[in-house]
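Sanity check

After download, print the first record. It should look like this:
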Amino acid sequence: MVNELLPAELVPLVWFSVISVTVYVFFRVFSSTLKEKFRQTNLSRKKAESSGHTDDQIDDLINNAPTALNHVNSIIAEQKAKGVSDEQMKGIYQKKQMLELVTNNAEVINIIGKPIIKKILGVVKSL
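Expected structure tokens:
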């Protein structure tokens, strides 16, 4: 019946066109799906890297707290030698208090505080 409607020279051309269009549509849909999959994979990788970076920062803060406390104490001693009042060094004293808290309670922070901080940061990042 197809032979009656189309000349014999056009039948292979029609078949080629139908197959070409089908293959084009298939690969077009498949490529957009593949692109979306790559995009989701990259986003999840970036989120994992950023959370790992935050974990490293928390570990560095806890591990370097004694060194930072010694540095802050030396800054306070220098400022007192120059005659700076305690009211003017209020920010440095607050930093010293925080570093003393971290230094004195490093074990507790590692056991209890780190998981809580990670959860809070995860919630904040998801917003």
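If your output differs, re-run the checksum step. Summary of this record's structure: Helices lie at 2-5, 11-82, 90-104, 106-126.
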